[in-house]
Write a structure and sequence with these properties.
TIM Barrel, 8 helices, alpha/beta, globular, two-stranded parallel ribbon, 19% strand, single chain
Length: 281
């Protein structure tokens, strides 16, 4: 009976995760016309969407046309359809390669340089894109492999504290688990970052499947309530060493104290117009 009531509760729970949904801009999305963007954002709102988290507004040297380009125009339309915007800043296209190559001092210097690029992009969007932004998203994801050492986590904390002070709206960033820190240690690290007044999101890993479900659940159970959870709405079908490929799947819905978001819009059923886009996890 208790199990039946629990399942009934899950069925009756409101679909809250899609209230916040991540969108990863890719150049092929430039093929959409104004009417298609308008319909996409209308459908997103009809599906319960309230906040669109845009993963980046500059990717390497790609600026998506700048203030008069397709991305800025589409986001102005999203705002017109009632979506709140958290706009991503700068992402180095070689980020994951670079952090693999660097020692602790090199990683700190690299992060300092990349945060400078994001500050420049923050000024560009704020001054020229004509958007009402409710938050800023830093695309450089954190993980417990490259930040396993405490000195690296301490350096990151100091840099993010200073960076956050220079923004005019709340900072968002995300992290994922590689199983290199114990759940309690990771939870304390996350709590310290959240204490800076930023919004930290933890990726649930259900789509990539890199960790067994019970291990993922142990990390999720240890998360502080102030850390949000990004629910992965995909299932990876590519093997290690192959280009990333995935198919849509329904995200796991939580019943705990955490705010939730979904990765990514490109995988949701009402966004089939973006089917040709394959997000980078």
């Amino acid at each position: 009976m208790r199990r039946f009531l629990y399942l009934l509760l899950l069925i009756c729970l409101p679909v809250v995760a899609d209230q916040r949904i991540l969108y990863q801009p890719l150049n092929r999305d430039a093929a959409l016309d104004a009417g298609q963007w308008r319909q996409l954002w209308r459908d997103t709102v009809q599906q319960g969407g309230r906040t669109l988290i845009v993963q980046w507004s500059r990717y390497g040297d790609e600026r998506f046309g700048g203030a008069d380009g397709w991305l800025a125009n589409s986001l102005r339309e999203a705002q017109a359809q009632g979506l709140e915007l958290v706009v991503g800043l700068h992402m180095d296209s070689a980020y994951y390669t670079r952090i693999d190559e660097l020692d602790s001092a090199g990683l700190a210097a690299y992060w300092k340089a990349q945060l400078g690029e994001s500050l420049a992009q923050h000024r560009e969007v704020r001054e020229n894109w004509h958007l009402k932004v409710s938050g800023w998203y830093l695309p450089m994801e954190l993980d417990d492999l490259h930040f396993q050492a405490k000195d690296r986590r301490d350096a990151l904390y100091s840099q993010l504290r200073e960076f956050n002070r220079k923004l005019d709206k709340p900072l968002h960033l995300s992290a994922f688990t590689a199983g290199k820190l114990a759940p309690g240690v990771q939870a304390r690290w996350y709590a310290g970052l959240a204490g800076l007044g930023l919004k930290l999101w933890w990726q649930d890993g259900a789509g990539t499947g890199r960790l067994p479900p019970l291990v993922r659940q142990s990390y999720a159970a240890a998360l502080p309530c102030e850390v949000g959870i990004i629910r992965e709405a995909f299932r990876q079908v590519s093997r290690e060493g192959e280009p990333f490929r995935a198919v849509p799947q329904n995200p796991i819905r939580g019943v705990g104290c955490h705010e939730e978001a979904v990765f990514a819009l490109n995988y949701r059923p009402w966004a089939r117009v973006l089917t040709g886009s394959s997000p980078i996890p």
